[in-house]
Amino acid sequence: MKNIILIGFMGSGKTVISRELSKRLKIKILDTDILIEKKAGIKIKNIFKKFGEEYFRDLEEKIVKDVSGKKNFIISTGGGIIKRQDNIKYLKKNGIVVYLKNTFETSRKRLKGKKDRPLFNEKNLKAARKLFFQRLKLYKNAADIIVKTDNKSIKEVADEIIKKIKGKGKLMY
Ligand code: S3P
């Protein structure tokens, strides 16, 4: 089976949806953020603080190359994965890219009170909103399937993803 790759802005629900898909389809999850933290031995917010964003992106790209060689996984990615075209190129080799799309408002609500996102600061919503709109096109271009998540339950989103993947006949090969 091909990998199912979840992309989307911070707060799009990649983590919770990957868990739901994992239960339903009985396939394991690889989470690029978790793998980056393991490799670096520190939390993402500290990678940004100590070494800066480019260092983080280099680690992210290395992890993407590793996971792209695998098959039959759900791959949950960080929101900035689309910043490097090579990441998408690699991920698509063995996978279907599913874009979890939502409004900025939905992300804002879901991230309320969370302090672990260096690029989403509630005190600087203007910058976060700008980033959101800059990235919309990148997610859309990378996507094989787009699922809107605003006001939908985890189950509804997972149902829709499974239906769309099956509809495309891309789950098996
Ligand atoms: C980032 C999103 C984060 C994490 C890092 C950078 C981004 O992942 O990779 O903080 O650039 O959008 P989530 O999308 O899981 O929050």
Give a structural overview.
- With 173 residues, this protein is of the alpha/beta class.
- It has a single domain, classed as Rossmann fold (3-Layer(aba) Sandwich), CATH 3.40.50.300.
- 54% of the residues lie in helices and 14% in strands.
- The protein has eight helices and five strands, in the order E-H-E-H-H-H-E-H-E-H-H-E-H.
- Strands 2-3-1-4-5 form a five-stranded parallel sheet, with helices on both faces.
- Helix 2 crosses helix 4, helix 3 packs across helix 4 and helix 4 runs parallel beside helix 5.
- The longest helix is centred in the last third of the chain and has 18 residues.
- The protein is globular, with a radius of gyration of 15 Å.
Keywords:
Rossmann fold; 8 helices; five-stranded parallel sheet; 5 strands; alpha/beta; binds shikimate-3-phosphate; 173 residues
